[in-house]
Amino acid sequence: LDHTEVSVVLDNEAIYGICQKKLDIKRPDYSDLNIIIGKTVSSMTASLRFDGELNVDLNEFQTNLVPFPRLHFMTSSIAPVTNKEKGGHESHTVNDITDHALQPANMLVKYTDFDVAEDKYMAISLNYRGDVKSKESNATVQWVKQQNKVSFVEWCPTGFKV
């Protein structure tokens, strides 16, 4: 850990919960978990493979989201999570996707007693895939702030990275 700049924490129990509750897989196996992990890592590294208006370099994760060298553990979430039957006919706005991504049920780490209203973040990175414009993503960040969906620690007001 002394030589790690950014660590992505993944929790089997949380990913099992996502498979069971969101994807309706009664008994998920490791291949089901690996699909979710693969999609998460693929989304985080998409900027290395694709051009786009909202691309972020992995170095920016470390620079903007990790204020102190010893605080380098990132919690990931994924949204929208829908099963194959629902995926074809559900539409999601950027606000919906962002709201779902900030919910503990979509986090890839299970925190006991996590309270969205009480617990605080140091920083949040929102990585969108698909046809999302920067104007729309910035408006969504403003919406999250206005709705008090998250709160940040006082000593690190970094906020959002889109």
Mean pLDDT: 83
Uncertain segments are none
Relative helix content: 25-40%
The rounded Rg comes to 16 Å
Q: What is the overall shape?
A: globular
Category from helices, strands and their pairing: mainly alpha
The number of distinct β-strands equals 4
Question: CA-to-CA gap between the ends?
Answer: 27 Å
The portion of residues forming beta strands comes to 5-15%
Q: What is the spatial order of strands in the main beta sheet?
A: 1-2
Instruction: Give, in order, the helices and strands.
Output: EHHHHEHHEHE
Put simply, the count of helices is: 7
Biggest sheet, open or closed, and with what strands and sense?
A: 2 strands, parallel
How would you describe this protein?
The protein has 162 residues and is mostly helical. The protein contains 7 helices and 4 strands. The protein has a two-stranded parallel sheet with strand order 1-2.
